[in-house]
Amino acid sequence: MIRRQPKPAATSLGARALPVHFIRSHNADGDACYFVLRASKASFRRLMTAQQRHNAIDIADYGEVLVSGYGPHPSLIARGELREKYGIELPQNL
């Protein structure tokens, strides 16, 4: 579950058949977290709309969560998993 954030920080990374999106948010306890989500553009738009309308949503309802974790930035382990499993290299500024 993620809690609504006034301005969602999401970046489309684009990979394979479906785009890959990097999303920063907060969990129900207010802790910073991030998700890397593979989802169609339509599903991603529905996610952004739902995030603005609802206090908590299940991000997995909108696509495939490739990695997730706590904090504002993916760890080196998460970055390595994305690279090895999916061939996705995250930009350094994420």
Condensed summary:
With 94 residues, the chain is of the alpha+beta class.
- Along the chain, the helix and strand elements come as EEEEHEEH
Helix content: 25-40%
Q: In terms of per-residue confidence, which ranges show pLDDT below 50 for 5 or more consecutive residues?
A: 1-12
**What form results from the Cα inertia axes?**
globular
Separation, N- and C-terminal Cα atoms: 21 Å
* Largest sheet data: 4 strands, antiparallel
Give the integer mean of the pLDDT values.
81
C-alpha-based Rg, rounded: 12 Å
Quaternary class = single chain
Q: What does it look like?
A:
- The structure is a single chain.
- Helices cover 26% and strands 31% of the residues.
- It has 94 residues and is α+β, with helices and mostly antiparallel strands.
- The strands form two sheets. It has a four-stranded antiparallel sheet with strand order 2-3-4-6, with helices on one face. The chain has a two-stranded antiparallel ribbon with strand order 1-5.
- A hairpin with a 5-residue loop joins strand 3 (20-26) and strand 4 (32-38).
- The longest helix is centred in the middle third of the chain and has 13 residues, at 41-53.
- It is globular, with a radius of gyration of 12 Å.
- The two termini are 21 Å apart.
- The model is unreliable at 1-12 (pLDDT under 50).
What are the main properties of this structure?
31% strand; two-stranded antiparallel ribbon; 94 residues; four-stranded antiparallel beta sheet; globular; disordered N terminus
